[in-house]
Amino acid sequence: MATSVISPSARLGAGTRCGEFCVIGDDVAIGAGCVIGHHVVIHDGTKIGDNVRIDDGTVIGKRPMRAANSAVTSDKEVPAASIGGNCIIGAHVIIYRGCTLGNKVLVADLSTIRENVTVGDFTIVGRGVAIENFCTIGRYVKLETNVYITAYSEVADRVFVAPCVATSNDNYIGRSEERFKHFKGVTVKRGGRIGVNATVLPGITIGSDSLVAAGALVTKDTPDGKIVAGVPAKVFRDVPEDQLLDKQGWKE
Q1: Would 135 be classed as within a structural domain?
Q2: Judgement on whether residues 51 and 167 belong to the same structural domain of the protein
Q3: pLDDT digits (tens, 9 = 90+) for 54-84
Q4: What span, in angstroms and rounded, lies between the C-alpha atoms of 170 and 231?
Q5: Could you list the residue range(s) of the whole structural domain that residue 224 is in?
Q6: In this structure, are 235 and 159 located in the same domain?
Q7: 177-210 pLDDT, tens digit each
């Protein structure tokens, strides 16, 4: 007796294995050599590359929900989710429709990636991370446990964000119509680093190779190659020469 529900129009590549009680929707395409855990739901139209691992209880291609008074969620239909090759997606992850993951991305257990988000190749999305809608995450990025990336944010390549970092996009905190003119997430430029439990306010840009110290409250843009610390954060000193991204010898 079959324990999974797989649409007749779904296509599974050679050697792909599904656990028990999976639901795979219409026109889903899953590449070769994939391992799908138990109780996984893959919604209509989702595209998944070769050699992808998806662990138990994960949902891929979930449609967005819109509250009656939501300021940032659209009613427009979004394209199907797309997962690149050789990705690892942990248990009880939710990846929304309209999300695109590159190749060799790791998404750890209990994370959520919303619609209209792109995540570049080789990026790590840690346990319990939330990436809200309309975000761009670059290549070789590390978002550590319980990071919150607010909507309308841009994170460039080789960025490191330590555990429990919080970002925001609304200086009006949900009050007055003026807020609708000024929604803006954060921008972290190439090689920027943000220390544990730091908070970055709306519209702030973290400069290239800038380092935000642990616990800092960032209220102003940070200069390239500088360490900022404190509440509010202020320039402390230069990032040491041997810590600069271009000194690491990485080929990409």
Answers
A1: no
A2: no
A3: 999 999 999 998 776 666 566 678 999 999 9
A4: 19
A5: 144-172+181-245
A6: yes
A7: 777 777 899 999 999 999 999 999 999 999 999 9
